[in-house]
Amino acid sequence: LTADFLSSANRGLRCGGGLDISGLEINQYYIRAIRMARSGNSLRISKFAQVALGEGIISQGQLIDQEQFVKILNNFLKANRWRKSDWMVVLPEGAIYTTYKLFPELSREDLAEAVEINVPSLLPGDPTMIYYGWQETSIVGQNKHQDEKIAGPEAMISSITKENLEVYLLALAKLKIVPLSVEPKASAIARVFDRTNNTLIINLETAGLSTANKSNKPIVKQSLNQQEANIGSKLVVSSIIINEGFARFSREVTLEAQSK
In sequence order, what DSSP letters do the residues of 50-86 get, joined into one string? Predict the structure, then answer.
């Protein structure tokens, strides 16, 4: 989450625009909020807060108990005096499906049409029952990390069921929250590493620790108040393989504390 907004905010600084960026991360265990502020020509985190979600409110990426979710989020925003209405939103990893498709010998001008044609075979479910978006990840030319030619443009395509997204959007709308963007956490983390080549990220979280590791080097560390969460017996392990600024592989599992 922090990585996502640092990246977006830096783009705003380079463009000389104003800076008022707030982000909301929603997952099975927490709601987290962050705000970035300008400090000269650099950025700083001006505000960060989080609140725990109870068991069963979100499960496998789906918002199950909308009423309780809205209540917790409303109290959280009021308690921390968050008055921002426009947010960049990160949804649980299980809510969004992402795949990649290479289109050999295709020109960039034809990529949009090719994606549209291939969506029914690339994404799970009835195409009329999902929302999806795509982004070009490579172009015809030389791979800057390897001595090989890229065969054609590639697209990253992500989707979410209309039913699932609309439940989240309805919950946010009740609090007058307007999502400027919606994406999975893996994409947010990948963005900060920009054009790295095949980097493995291991993210470990419990009620008392939040870290992100690149190899064995700590990137982020945030102590949490044990009383803010009731998941001290659980360890959430996320693994992400990043290549050229995109999350090529992402898995998240929850382990009991006694598991090894």
Answer: EEEPPTTSEETTEE--HHHHHHHHHHHHHHTT----E
